[in-house]
Structures are given as structure tokens and as C-alpha cells.
Amino acid sequence: MNSISDTYRSIAAPAKGIYKELGSKFLAFAYPVETEDAAKKIIASFRKEYFDARHHCFAWRLGLTGEPYRFSDDGEPSSTAGRPIHGQLLSQELSDILVVVVRYFGGVKLGVPGLIRAYRTATQDALANAEIIEKVAGEHFTIEFEYLQMNDVMKVLKDMGITPLSQAFDLKCRMEVRVRLTQIEDFRRQLAFCQII
Questions:
Q1: Cα–Cα dist 10/32, whole Å
Q2: Tally of CB atoms within 10 A around 135
Q3: Which domains does the chain have, with CATH numbers?
Q4: How far apart are CA 94 and CA 97, in angstroms?
Q5: How confident is the prediction for the chain on average, in pLDDT?
Q6: What is the pTM for the complete model shown?
């Protein structure tokens, strides 16, 4: 039995949360993301959609270990927004996730403790409304093999519970597969007769 874990927690679909205090409104949006680019695009879309909001603070974590990660206070006092949002992702052990909190200022300053509480609570609300799922970390591979090896390849994939993502059959066959981290060594060993890219 392999001792390393290749599973981690994420969310199934976008979710929303809200927190209001002294006229300020904090709208929290949690999104499942798998790449830094995807996170950046969503953040940019929020800046456009909520252009009239004063701050668009965020935090994201990616992959099995939650690294890379990033958070931003977007003009709020240092560590009052991005860090509390990130702290909620850490405490709930979530990854492949982005949370953006859009703030509409209500005219009354909340102070540092008030801001930390507001961003943390808005994030908690969004995460409470999200469906938490278990994800399996894996890597994508391309396998190339001769047509005559098809049955051997398909048997290995079936035994390991791997479903091809795409396939092309000709004299030379090619398949795209995603293999969970704990199976990679076994996968390479069993398919040593193929070219694995």
C-alpha cells in the first residue's frame, strides 16, 4: 500500500457568500480553478463586472499541496483582506480554488480587526455554500504503441482503472491518459513496452 496521499479537497462549482457591516458590503465568490491563468482571468472579469467596487481582494491555492498560492489586499491595509481569505482556504484544507471578495465601501471605516473579520466571514459564507469534493492528483501522459499492442495496452488501462481521454488508431496508435500520482510508477512499469511521453 502506498503511503503518499494523492487526494485533496476542492469545490465542485462556483459558490457565493456575503457579509455586511456598517454599510459596507463584502461579496465573496468561490471558484474551482486548476491554473494560475484561469484564476487571473476570473479576477480580471470581476474587476470589469464590479468596476464600481472599491476593492477586489482574492486568494487562490492550486494542486495537491496547495502550492503555488497567492493572495492580494488590493489596496486594503496590509494583511487585512488577502491573508484572511487565504487563511480560510488553509483551515478548510481546500485547493484548486479561488476566492474573490468584492467590497463596496459604506462610508464608515471598519478598522483593521473589522476588515479581517469581514473578509474572513464573507469567505466562510461562500465556502459554506460550496459543495466540497475530493480530487485526485494526477499527471497527463501520451502513450504511443503499435496497433498489434492494442489489446495489451487496453488490458493494463482497464486493470488500473484508467480511461483514455483521447485516442487515435492507425498503424501507430496514440492515447492521452491521466494517471493518479500513486499509480504513475506502476503505470510506467506495466507499459514499458510502449513509448510514454
A1: 7
A2: 18
A3: 7-134 (3.30.230.30), 138-196 (3.30.70.120)
A4: 7
A5: 93
A6: 0.82
Q: What burial letters (b/e) apply to 154-186, b meaning 16+ CB within 10 Å?
A: eebbeeeebeeeeeeeeeebbbebebbbbbeee
Q: Which residue has the cell 455586511?
A: 20
| CB contact at 8 A, 66 and 123 | no
Q: How confident is the model at residue 4 (pLDDT cuts 50, 70, 90)?
A: low
pLDDT digits (tens, 9 = 90+) for 148-177: 899 999 999 999 999 999 999 887 899 999
Q: How far apart are CA 158 and CA 186, in angstroms?
A: 13
Q: What's the gap between Cα 68 and its chain centre?
A: 10
Cβ neighbour number for residue 102 with a 10 Å cutoff: 22
- Determine how many CB atoms are found less than 10 A away from the CB of residue 152: 15
CA atoms of 26 and 74, how far apart (whole Å): 14
pLDDT computed for residue 2 by the predictor:
44
